[in-house]
């Protein structure tokens, strides 16, 4: 579904992402872990087509992001770490805008807005301007907008930040369902317990370089993800669980 | 603590003015441009007020009411500073983004308030200098001043903006109170207030000559009225013209006391006002049948909703639309006078180009596209991550400018055509030429914004007030009408007929339209994708 090959992104001389390669298959929830400034958001933004990159290749469902950005974007959705949405629109106007962009039919959008809106307890607030929403409500709206066109690949940057426990639980369920139906999810998180339980595969990034990746069980072994992460953070050697 | 807060605010202002969004450090080009802009505005205003004071000093001296000169100077300063800083005061005090952060720290409310007030005070001193400098120069060269009077003048210059601050703080307090209660109509109220003040200003400027004559003719009775009713102004004037210390003390008390009282009252209410959330009646969503739009239509609707959501953005970016409608009304009201002018045979030859230029000049204050990229701000990720071609995104921005600005120009064109009764071909030109010009400014504004986008703003108003693309677009669009007229008047009047010149200009504008649009579709697209 997603192939990142030797991705490098520089800010002047600083390499935010350094020769990173990852393969994400359909059906997988792939967790992306690293300390602040490790290069997670930069990688996600490059995959989402928001940020141009210097070297490497990003292939989504067999198409290159460099040459077929539009086709790539049509089958994916991106949820940023800070849901800065169009505050001048109401929730329903925003969802309709996204649905118009993805050309979701009237019937489909009505069904999905009602389904996800009810699921996240946001339906009654959809007529409110987004400027009146709390952080959590904006996050919920961003999540609903991501699912409205049924993308195959979903990119999420810290999706659980700001969500209440019920919404967090729901999101985990939806993520699992999405992947069980053949989709794929690539998300970054600092909540290691969630990553450990939810992810089929995990990648850990440090100073722009991938230091470990593979099946969750292979990466953590008998330890907790937290222990593994802290050990790897102290260790400069690059390992591969495969 | 107060000094630290003031320093931070000044640093913020300086950074906003000089730092380009991507490059580190200050942009020298931007500094030069800003400097030129200040010099231009300064020269225009100082020249205008200098002429005004020059025409007043002699008759007042002859009538023995020199003091009225300084009363009028103070009155002009109060008005200019009040109108110029009223909305900034509201924004700086009640809508600042760091209010909650600072309130959570062990800082006195009065210090937070004073640090914000200081920013406005600097702006007021700039406004004041446009009036005080020519007033001082004209007076000292014509009448002369003693050292004590000069000293008092300096103190007056330093303290008068404090009185204005008291007024604008009070007004912003009332405004904040009102806006908290009627948040839904914030945009409409802001527009009505702004247009009201602007109308008042325009009316005052247009009537200046009439009032000047009236002032000179009725100087004595006005002086008596001021002496009896606005006694602080009278005492200010007596202090400056006669060096009267008693009057000077009375003026100082009148200027400083309101400031101290207002600051005290505001600091008492600051926490409540700065943290009040607008009372919004919750609208419960009721599912309705939905409509599917094309992607392009959805993009244009989004652009228009964004633009119309902020009164200050609308007023700064689309003043031309409002002026076109006001001008169309004025044309209909004064149709007899216009018809009389239009019937003069020497004028008739120039009628069509003049009408075209009129519409162009009035609508040149539309700079919507010049801030449309910058206004995306931290929501830029949305359109970048969606499957939308860059061409569609840029075209939707161009379309918004055209959809909003062309009708305003057409209304004025139709009014002019109706009143002047020009022929079919001429009417067509008066309708089409302003459209071509609107497109030119539309394309130019977008290109300039693609060249210098600004995303690191805290408030959207910064994009439309302080960004280089907007300033450049404004100068070019306003200058174009003047340049077109000047080129013909100075160099081509004996070589080309006005009709030939008009058609040549139309051809040049069409060529420029095509070239700029093509540049957007090539360089512009590349530039957008690299932002």
Automatic annotation (TrEMBL), chain A:
PANTHER family reported for this sequence: ABC TRANSPORTER ATP-BINDING PROTEIN ALBC-RELATED
Membrane-spanning parts: none
Single GO MF annotation: ATP hydrolysis activity
Sorted UniProt keywords: ATP-binding, Nucleotide-binding, Transport
This protein's record includes keyword Disulfide bond: no
InterPro entries for this protein: AAA+_ATPase, ABC_transporter-like_ATP-bd, ABC_transporter-like_CS, ABC_Transporter_VariousFunc, P-loop_NTPase
Classification via Pfam families: ABC_tran
Domain named ABC transporter: residues: 2-232
Protein name: ABC transporter
TrEMBL record, chain B:
Record key words, sorted: Membrane, Transmembrane, Transmembrane helix
Domain of life from the UniProt record: Bacteria
Residues forming coiled coils: none
Transmembrane segments: 31-55, 67-88, 113-138, 150-175, 187-205, 248-271, 311-334, 354-377, 398-422, 428-450, 470-492, 498-517
Name the record gives this protein: Uncharacterized protein
